[in-house]
User: Fold ABC transporter from Nocardia rhizosphaerihabitans.
Amino acid sequence: MSNAIEIRELTKTYGTRRGLTGLTLDVRSGEVFGYLGPNGAGKSTTIRLLLDLIRPTAGTASVLGLDPRENGVAMRRRIGYLAGDFVVDGRQKVRDCLRFLADLRGGVPQPRIDELTERLGLDPTTTIKSLSKGNRQKVGLVQAFMHTPELLILDEPTSGLDPLVQQTFLDLVTEAADNGQTVFMSSHIMDEVEAVADRVGILRDGALVALDTVADLRAAAIRHIEIGFADPVAIEEFRAVPGLIDPRLDETGSVLRAGLSGSPDAVVKAAARHTVLTLTITEPHLDEIFHSHYAAARQPAA
Assistant:
């Protein structure tokens, strides 16, 4: 499978402030890639470097097989971009703004624009300056999707959107992927990324700290296990069981709760020495995995 984006040791510093540090990353053609991190992690810096809106301190990037610096105009023709701070002329009506942007693209069929505005619940007759933040974001989404680009680069795309419109956005992303388009989507909202992403990268302080499918990140993460026994048990029986993390009993002594890493086989065998009434293993959500990487960073060195 070819790559829509290839990044090698990309670094950006702002004087003494670090924006991005030695980022190496491939985004495959046709995949939905979720780029996760809190505000200030370096997500927008990455996107601006890819689009040649800013220049790197070091490293290289290739987008759709092109050098952003040498072939920026040709590259951007093939991209749909939504900035995290989408701004257009507030004096225009929505329909005039979208028509103007469509003409800059070389023309977009009006039925396509109408379809997107209707699906997103956007009134084309209103002026931009009268729109709420959420409705301005809808304008940004329409202009990004309307020309069916090979690559969609979306920076915090659901900012300000209500839950129903967020779902419509996720539907649009799924449809784009089904159409063979690549989607690179930065976000700090885990649920939306988990719903559509093929792979995710987690950025922390300008560096990539995790890269995998959601399923594999979950498999490697700590799960939660709870075992209910018919009678009280001794906590000492479980403290040395492989895979159990911080085992503890409730006040009755008959319910064991712990973290679980890897296979539950040893835990099940240890529990089988008693009468087991219930056994529940809970898979972590993506937001738990995300926060675990940040919690690890805050741990003091040994």
About this structure: Residues 163-178 form the longest helix (16 residues). The chain has a mean pLDDT of 89.
